[in-house]
Amino acid sequence: MTEEEQKAFLASPMGQMARLHTRRQLFAASAKSLGGIALASMLNPLGANIAKASESPGAAAGPTKSPRQHAAKAKRVIFLYMAGGPSHLDLFDPKPKLMSMDGTAMPESFTQGQPIAQLQGKALKCMAPQFEFKQHGQSGQTISSALPHISGVADDICLIKSMVTEQINHDPAHTFMNTGTSIAGRPSMGSWVTYGLGNESNNLPGFVVLTSAGGGQGQPISSRQWHSGFLPSKFQGVPLRSQGAPVDYVDNPLGVGHECQRSVISSVSELNHLRNEVVDDPEIATRISQYEMAFRMQTSVPEMADLDGEPQSIKDLYGVEGLDGSFAANCLMARRLAERGVRFIQLYHRGWDHHGKVKEGVTNASKLVDQASAALITDLKQRGMLDDTLVIWGGEFGRTPMAQGDGRDHHIKGFSMWMAGGGVRPGMSYGQTDDLGYHAVDDVVHVHDFHATMLHLLGIEHTQLTYRYQGRDFRLTDVFGNVLNDILV
Amino acid sequence: MTILADLNTFIGRFHPLVVHLPIGLLVALALTGVCFRRANVKAPERLLLGLLAASCIAAAVFGWLLASGGGYNDDILSRHRWMGIGVAVGCAACLVLHFANRFKTYGLVLAATLLGVGLVGHDGGSLTHGSDYLTRYMPNGLRSLIGLGPRVEPPPIVITTVADTAVYDAIVYPIFENNCISCHGPEKSRGNLRMDTHEAVLAGGREGPLVLVDNPSASPLLTRIHLPPDDEEHMPPPGKTPLTSEQKKVLEWWMQVGAPFEGTVAQIDTTLNTEVMLEQYLGLAEPAPEPQPLAAIAEDAKRIADELGLRIEPVAESKNILEVTAQNVASFFDDDQLRQLDPLAANIVELNLANTKVTDQGLETVAQMTNLRRLWLNGTQVTDAGLSHLSRLRELRYLNLYGTVVTDAGLPSLAVLPHLSQLYLWQTQVSPEAATAFVESSVDRAQLEAWRQEIAAKQKLIEEAGTRIDLGRGVALDPQTKADPQPETNAH
């Protein structure tokens, strides 16, 4: 390094950081650098968070225009991901016709030529909804008796009953829901969002994933579901463990103090920085920032995951016993993460894949998620956070109107999801399936439309959120996607 | 007794209707007399004379009943009454003379009666519309001809600042003058109530006092204006200009401060709330400064963000309005640091100070951000006293006070914010009753109902416009019908 370069380095945020020692100075300085970056993004249409990648000659150029085209209604997203394929027919989409046709042959006009998973080549028989439906709230939304708590917040949610997707098996369908394509290796939506908007928090990652334990179905969820694909890897989802310490090795080893740890990180950063001067690799930049993030997380994560400060009334609201890995505990964690500025929080709950015993299965899964899902809405609302937090509830697909023994098979031509807060019109139902709940027929919502709408609520014009990779511009919505204007406030 | 009085008034009110019959008949008789001097029109004339006498007596009786209700200027009333009776007598005399074939005298008496009708009619008009009704807009030349001086306009009250404005003369009295005094004034004093002088306002009317000096907020003046518009006792009565909600608020405030007749705003009430309310009422509120262009503030914004560790961003690409959050430095961000945002004040539309060390003092800085729409103060030390600084934030839509120590006493400061639509008060000292009352006071139920009806009407228009075609995809339940598809067409 020449003297000038050295001066420049010491003046740079990283150089300053390397010389800092107290926690307060550290927080102030790290905030400084990021505040400065946010400003840089204001002056420069390139998002500052992507500036590093686009500057380097080896990497593909970032978007040429900021994707933030209008003021955001939602500042963050909490996606309650119901993995396995919840049965829309037993939760949100009552079908009296299906009830009356229980046990009779499914009309071929519905199923002919349609993709069918495990029921292929078998006799297709109608299966009545297994639960009673009632209207709830002032809005009169019709919700199943399996979800008494969600029924209680019926006036706060927007039910979408006409979802369609393109993949009929779990893993590719998860991939489709998360990345907008079934081809593995594209960035997930949480990565796209943090890439487009940056992270509000300096001390926690912008994209956090929590997977709940329990429910009896331990179907694997590949970490590919929260991968950043070709986006810089700092936008990758960070899974926090939901039992025990949320992050492994978050505590310093015995004998290593805070100061000592600081000096190790600073030295490593300095070396990385020197190397990056030479090769200018965005992954080194990522590594530098992730070391810093990890160091800050040594303080911020234990603080975030400490539920002792939560009053008993709040724990009771969610039905939380402690940090036991339950969906309820994760919902409470999600609220705490949201309060601390995490941009995209995704909670996976496995246990909705009811090929057999759908009644029992839906009952069990509902017991595990119903109360906490509703509690999250209530809790965000009383804190004034539901206005700018978009809550999404749904899975990768729905389930067939046809019986598979006493269960239901995978179904992709019509299923339900709901959204709440963040600029979504509350207390409304959008779209319809046909009389038997097979095809979405009115206001059909493709996964691409759902993505476009989610990005719109975050202030992003989905056609502008692009990343050039291997010679073409990629989007979360590919070449599709229409914003659902009818469900916006 | 009241039933009889009511009946009297009811019948009496036909006086203005009936009174025009004899006038017309008199004119007709006079014209007949002049135009058909030589023809023999005795029989039709006698018919008209009969009608004239009857209607004259009816008009006089009805007039007497109307006058018994009171509320008129006594001098003019007595002149009107006796001249009216005189006219009736004149008409009767005409009838008698005509039948007696004393046509010469008949002509003279008829002419005199006609003259009398003109005079009595003028007095009648004065009683109903006020004595200067005819002359108020008369050209000055004509006025001097009939012995009136040139028209004198009261000197217009010049209002420059709220503080120096006379509370009664410049703020309250104009409301009385425009909305009350036409019925409760020198010309007409309905219910024996006059509101044109201090003494009269304090004296009240037949039904008791108007202003309760000991308990002004319970004064009948307020009760009457707050009754539902369809209530019989509501003032102003149907058909008269209703008070606006701003005028009602001003009268409420006047009562709250003890219904003073003398003194300026500064001498009576110096709270910021009042100043803001009156500024808006008197049209003295200054428009919020335009946000500066992005280029002009970018340097400052970057420097401030760097120095304070704030996140400062435009709300969208190339917008010059900013979101500011202290989230990452909340644990040590204080009033002094907040003050450094001053250069950006006009550009900040969202400010997140949640869980910071900001206090009431810091809200003085926030008060300068007049374009602010969303403000987070949850988890801070702000109190009721601090909230009074927010009353000038006219654009404020969202205010989060959850987890602060604000109480019911803080809410009035927020009542003047015209656009506030979301207020979060969980875990504060505010009582549910006060919160409900706050919501009710800011909701104009009548307006909401009007909008609802408008929406319903528009919704109907939407439904009626255009044609909807439903091809019924996937609803064919019978496989056989699929072979021969019959698209279902619904045309509305």
Describe this structure in words.
The complex is a heterodimer of chains A (489) and B (492). By secondary structure, chain A is α/β, with parallel strands linked by helices. Chain A has 16 helices and 17 strands. In chain A, strands 1, 4, 5, 6, 7, 8, 11, 12 and 15 form a nine-stranded mixed β-sheet that branches. A two-stranded antiparallel sheet of chain A has the order 2-3. In chain A, helix 11 (258-279) packs antiparallel against helix 12 and helix 14 (327-339) runs parallel beside helix 15 (358-382). Mean pLDDT of chain A is 87; it is low at 17-64. With 492 residues, chain B is mainly alpha-helical. Chain B has 21 helices and six strands. Chain B has helices at residues 2-12, 15-18, 20-35, 42-68, 74-99, 103-129, 140-145, 167-179, 198-203, 220-226, 245-256, 265-268, 272-281, 294-308, 335-339, 362-367, 384-387, 411-415, 432-442, 445-464, 479-483, and strands at 311-314, 322-325, 348-352, 374-376, 398-400, 422-424. A six-stranded mixed β-sheet of chain B has the order 1-2-3-4-5-6, with helices on one face. Chain B is elongated and about 110 Å long.
